[in-house]
């Protein structure tokens, strides 16, 4: 009798949770839709890069295939070809109307929120580790709403595609996930931050040969198809401009490393991608952030593979030798692995600009709730990170203080992710 009563109580709790997840998701989606309607109706649109995107796609549609010759008001085309085709489709739908484009981006934002909420459910249900009411944290970011609806940056569509790929991986639809993931990379190469975790997922299930075959068949083929007109004309120009890993960044717009010293350049020497000299713009700083990124990534993957609910037989070295011995990564660990890999890349990025918040902002609650960080501190960290992504300085820029706070918050989360607490998500 007691056992039956206990089973009934557990079943009742699970049933209640099963109903509360879709209800909270629906409330989040409807609330976000209403909020975006108000934002678009009452807040003025700010032109930054959208006109440049359209000018660049117009040049391509007019027949230009040399990537080095495609420019707009804000500078050269520095994104892969998927970006060009995406904005060609957007402008075709919107017929030159900025307001229509805002509404379309609002739809993409709501879709992104829905996809991310589905990922949270797949990670935490049926446990009560993350109450679905906390999905409301996903609506916290003022900056994310602005990036989608008031700025029309390509970071929004890239984030939507990246999150859709994560959901497909969680659902074990690997081929479709790889195609969608490659599309995200074709819009903006920031999505490449997920790549190491994508490989781990595929190799654990299919081995190195199977993983490489899947990547070549699904990911590389998409890149080839999307970039074919430019690759056929001048492959060197396309690869150099679309995937420029050595590109500079303006210190003025850095959100995370404003505290790194930088000597302002004279006005005549300022370029679209560089405004200063010194430590921030140095190759040494670039090398240090890259080395830190690779080190933290290796440590995280090694510790993750040793966790009990990965069913592993050793760390990273053992995985490299025989990945298939691990078997498929458990479904509730797929999103944390992918999101953590992306987050480590963001935390080590040489410079983060305001629009980059959508790369990882709504994944932070999920990552924090898979660590041993006290729940009140989890909420405090989410709020602190959001505060840092809004201007603290003059002329709509960040400040030394805000970037120091953001760096500190990132370090705390990195440390929490690396802590080998042997915790299971469920």
From TrEMBL:
Pathway as given in its UniProt record: Protein modification; protein glycosylation
Cellular component aspect of the GO annotation: endoplasmic reticulum membrane
Membrane topology value: Multi-pass membrane protein
Keyword Transmembrane listed: yes
Membrane-traversing stretches: 21-40, 119-140, 152-173, 179-202, 209-232, 283-301, 366-388, 400-419
Catalytic reaction list: an alpha-D-Man-(1->2)-alpha-D-Man-(1->2)-alpha-D-Man-(1->3)-[alpha-D-Man-(1->6)]-beta-D-Man-(1->4)-beta-D-GlcNAc-(1->4)-alpha-D-GlcNAc-diphospho-di-trans,poly-cis-dolichol + a di-trans,poly-cis-dolichyl beta-D-mannosyl phosphate = an alpha-D-Man-(1->2)-alpha-D-Man-(1->2)-alpha-D-Man-(1->3)-[alpha-D-Man-(1->3)-alpha-D-Man-(1->6)]-beta-D-Man-(1->4)-beta-D-GlcNAc-(1->4)-alpha-D-GlcNAc-diphospho-di-trans,poly-cis-dolichol + a di-trans,poly-cis-dolichyl phosphate + H(+)
GO MF entry, a single one: dol-P-Man:Man(5)GlcNAc(2)-PP-Dol alpha-1,3-mannosyltransferase activity
Matching InterPro entries: Glycosyltransferase_ALG3
One matching Pfam family: ALG3
Top EC class of this enzyme: transferase
Record flagged with keyword Lyase: no
Highest taxon above the source species: Eukaryota
Keywords tagged on the record: Endoplasmic reticulum, Glycosyltransferase, Membrane, Transferase, Transmembrane, Transmembrane helix
EC number: 2.4.1.258
UniProt subcellular location: Endoplasmic reticulum membrane
Record protein name field: dolichyl-P-Man:Man5GlcNAc2-PP-dolichol alpha-1,3-mannosyltransferase
Natural source organism: Pelagomonas calceolata
